[in-house]
Design brief:
The complex is a heterodimer of chains A (325) and B (495). Chain A has 325 residues and is an all-alpha fold. In chain A, 77% of the residues lie in helices and 2% in strands. Chain B is globular, with a radius of gyration of 24 Å. The chains are: A mainly alpha (325), B alpha/beta (495). The interface between A and B is large, with 29 and 42 residues.
Chain lengths: 325, 495
């Protein structure tokens, strides 16, 4: 019990609870079942992407191309369905394969060249953005197969969104990979001490590659769900999602310095971001003000993350030595 | 005045949540003395130093420096009062030159620009005083561990400290460097500097110190005049029980050759040929920078061989990385435990099973029962002291951390085990346990290579000693030929 109270996930859940209480008081619309499922629908994509994103963060990397991965995944799947008449199931599979491939390319460049992940994926983001606009010419593609659209908009028993089921399944898969498999263990080991992991016989390159590959894979699933929900594909759709994922993960206790965090934490982080966005929208807060608030939330979370790391003896020592000089 | 009390701890207590790190400590240090502080790892030596250097604030009690009473110190204040610390772990900036590191924060200026020539000249002077040949312009990252330590000492010496605290300064140094450091300590003492000298090595305590203070479990035990005590008494006071640092005899004979190096070159070593037999401990001697660790890295596959061949179990061993070496049955316990040996922020169980995860999992899914069994069995057989195997490794003492490193390799059931400085920074009690384990492994038929800068250990543990000098093989000594003189002669390249 004591352990649960002390865990980071618990602290983050308390923040979530506080937010819910706050919005319930200021806005009566907020506290409705319909609104909650609305939030769930909205965060399904960020949630699913955050699972893969947290893998990358835990290994000590980052993937800023997630946002435009979503755009390109969406656009390609949409074009396949509407312009080429490919069956939606096949189109989705191709979209997922492509998403995974993009992740693997990111990973491959990072492990083989040792260029900082931030730079590699930032460049990749711009490339994907360009490719996606080349395909759409900036125009929207819309109206898809009805069965397909149901994935994103439909409900089970008239109330539970299908996308929520997807999110839950992906979270369970994510938790399983991270806690029960060799690779999850290796993710943590590499994020904490890559040298010791290597000298223990961990194939560091392959594990990092896997993290980026899984990130691409999960992102593509999130992208397809979003395509179904919006029933429209635009190159700008994924813009900013890397930011939402990063915020969700870091708020949920996945360290941007690598080695720490859980899938559960990342999902609670998503909920916090989702509730915040939804609550602010319901309260009719100016859109630009919302942006400022979202930025502040990430900044706060990162500062907290790094400050709590400072408690670490070693950092303390370096600090004292710096002061000495 | 020489002999007056210069530094005093009054009832200093430091509490951490759930732990009493320092328990009502009263100590006093006299001006111009070399005052050794001994105690097992975890006894509170480092915490005590940190209260003096201002890195941590005592929960209770006061610190008195030259008659001034402080409830707490800051690093800056402590520095101003003449306290300098040489930490166990280096505090150098690797990308900067030796000279830049020495004068960091107190750069010599030539108008608006750095006076590099002046700093380099002064650094060279300092190094000459330390009897070492280090290029002040050399990047610290390019220096060997031994030389880095010397830069650290030079840095502290350059500040003309009144109270110099040295936390196991000799640990990574070679014999000649240690001798040079002893001379520096003696000279500083004659200049009236007070030296607090923390060490595990008995011989240097008796060589250097005037008085010795013993701490145990965060408590101050007693202070004795070095001249009035002996090694056995000190060890007894430290551990609170009788203990002898001894090297047990092994009965069994070495068996067939398992590993053979044929003119192996690469990673800074050249033309090394040697043989390793099952059931023996082969000592690898030489100065720091002679290429001992570098040779071990070649055998372990973490660095590449450029020419020559390694024959393992009668067949050439072609390895591209350490994964293949590990699979083949070679293990390495690295010198830098915290950086290379363990993942500090992970648990004992996660560290122990890291190399053998594939063996205890099916379709990449870890079997938690097996994982626990493996770890528990090594916790028992290696006597790892911990309430639970879920404990994070960073919360363990040095000796127990080293046992975790051992556990993770033994779980792989290796046939060749390389120990690189196996007992560095480990307290007396745990040291003995490590020796016993090594002997037991040799008796079981494992082939062991041991790199050690601790002469006593090298002589006591090895069946044979191979000495390296400047990356080349300087000679091989059989059990009968091993002696401090013979190793030193070869290490210095005198033959």
């Amino acid at each position: 019990m004591k352990k649960i109270v002390k865990s980071k996930e618990f602290a983050v859940s308390m923040v979530l609870l506080a937010l819910i209480v706050f919005f319930s008081i200021v806005s009566p619309q907020f506290m409705q079942a319909k609104n909650f499922f609305n939030i769930a629908k909205q965060i399904a994509t960020v949630g699913i992407c955050s699972v893969g994103f947290s893998f990358v963060l835990i290994t000590g990397g980052i993937d800023l191309s997630v946002g435009y991965q979503i755009s390109l995944d969406i656009v390609v799947t949409a074009v396949l369905m509407n312009s080429f008449g490919v069956h939606w199931v096949l189109a989705c599979i191709i979209g997922m394969v492509m998403g995974t491939a993009i992740g693997l390319i990111n990973g491959l460049i990072i492990v083989e060249t040792h260029v900082a992940p931030l730079i590699v994926t930032l460049s990749m983001m711009t490339i994907l953005k360009g490719v996606s606009y080349l395909i759409t010419n900036g125009l929207a593609i819309f109206k898809f197969n009805e069965t397909f659209v149901k994935l994103g908009q439909g409900t089970i028993a008239e109330i539970v969104p299908i996308s929520l089921v997807f999110l839950l399944v992906i979270v369970i898969v994510g938790v399983f990979i991270l806690n029960k498999t060799i690779y999850g263990r290796y993710f943590y080991a590499i994020g904490n001490n890559v040298e010791a992991a290597k000298l223990s016989g961990v194939n560091v390159k392959r594990v990092q590659l896997l993290a980026y590959g899984l990130c691409g894979f999960f992102t593509s699933i999130g992208a397809i769900l979003m395509l179904a929900r919006l029933n429209s594909a635009q190159s700008s759709t994924g813009d900013g999602y890397e930011f939402s994922c990063l915020t969700a993960c870091v708020v949920g206790g996945v360290s941007s310095n690598g080695g720490k965090g859980t899938v559960l934490g990342a999902i609670i982080g998503c909920l916090i971001v989702g509730v915040l966005e939804n609550g602010l929208a319901i309260m009719n807060v100016n859109e630009y003000v919302q942006e400022v608030i979202k930025g502040l939330v990430l900044l706060l979370a990162v500062v907290y993350d790094t400050m709590s790391l400072r408690k670490n003896e070693k950092v303390k020592k370096i600090k004292s030595i710096n002061a000495e000089n | 005045m020489i002999g007056d009390t210069i530094l005093k701890l009054n009832h200093v207590t430091k509490l951490y949540p759930g732990v009493v790190a320092l328990d009502d400590m009263n100590m006093e240090f006299r001006e111009g003395e070399v005052h050794a502080i001994v105690g097992e790892n975890g006894a509170g030596k480092s915490t005590m130093i940190k209260t003096i250097s201002g890195a941590i604030e005592p929960t209770q009690g006061t610190i008195e420096i030259s008659g001034e009473v402080f409830h707490k110190l800051t690093p800056k204040l402590s520095r101003e009062k003449g306290v300098a610390v040489i930490y166990q772990e280096f505090t150098l900036v690797p990308v900067l030159s030796a000279a830049d590191n020495i004068f960091m924060g107190e750069y010599m200026m030539n108008g608006m620009v750095l006076d590099r020539k002046g700093m380099e000249a002064k650094a060279r002077e300092l190094f000459e005083r330390l009897h070492v040949n280090i290029d002040p312009r050399a990047k610290v990252a390019d220096l060997t561990t031994g030389f880095q330590q010397i830069v650290e000492i030079a840095k502290a010496v350059s500040k003309d400290a009144k109270i110099l605290i040295m936390d196991e300064p000799s640990a990574p140094l070679t014999i000649s460097e240690v001798e040079a450091m002893y001379e520096i300590v003696d000279r500083l003492k004659s200049e009236g500097v007070t030296i607090l000298y923390i060490s595990h090595r008995m011989e240097e305590i008796f060589r250097l110190s005037d008085r010795v203070s013993i701490i145990r479990d965060g408590k101050y035990i007693t202070t004795v005049n070095t001249a009035d005590t002996n090694k056995q008494e000190l060890i007894k006071l430290m551990v609170g029980r009788e203990l002898n640092e001894s090297y047990p005899e092994r009965q069994k004979e070495a068996k067939e050759t398992i590993l053979k190096l044929d003119k192996v070159s690469g990673n800074g070593v050249k033309d090394i040929s040697l043989e390793l037999k099952k059931g023996e401990i082969l000592g690898l001697g030489g100065l720091v920078g002679a290429g001992r660790t570098e040779l071990a890295q070649l055998i372990f596959g973490s660095e590449k061989i450029t020419s020559g061949e390694i024959i393992y179990k009668g067949r050439p061993l072609k390895i591209k990385n350490c994964q293949q070496a590990i699979e083949a049955g070679i293990a390495m316990i690295p010198e830098d435990r915290k950086q290379h040996g363990v993942v500090l922020d992970m648990s004992i169980i996660e560290n122990t099973t890291m190399p053998c995860l594939k063996r205890i999992s099916k379709y990449s899914v870890i079997n938690p029962k097996k994982e626990e069994d493996v770890t528990e069995s090594y916790k028992k057989s290696l006597l790892i002291k911990t309430p639970t195997i879920r404990q994070l490794v960073k919360n363990l003492s040095g000796g127990n951390q080293q046992k975790v490193v051992l556990a993770k390799w033994l779980a792989m059931n290796p046939e060749v085990i390389i120990f690189d400085e196996p007992t560095r920074g480990i307290d007396v009690g745990a040291k003995q346990e490590i020796y016993d384990i090594m002997n037991q492994l040799a008796d079981e038929g494992k082939a062991i290579i041991m790199i050690s800068s601790d002469m006593e250990e090298l002589i006591g543990m090895s069946d044979r000693v191979v000495v390296l000098c400047k990356g080349r093989l300087a000679g091989s000594l059989s059990k009968e030929e091993i002696s401090q003189e013979s190793i030193l002669m070869k290490a210095a390249g005198a033959e």
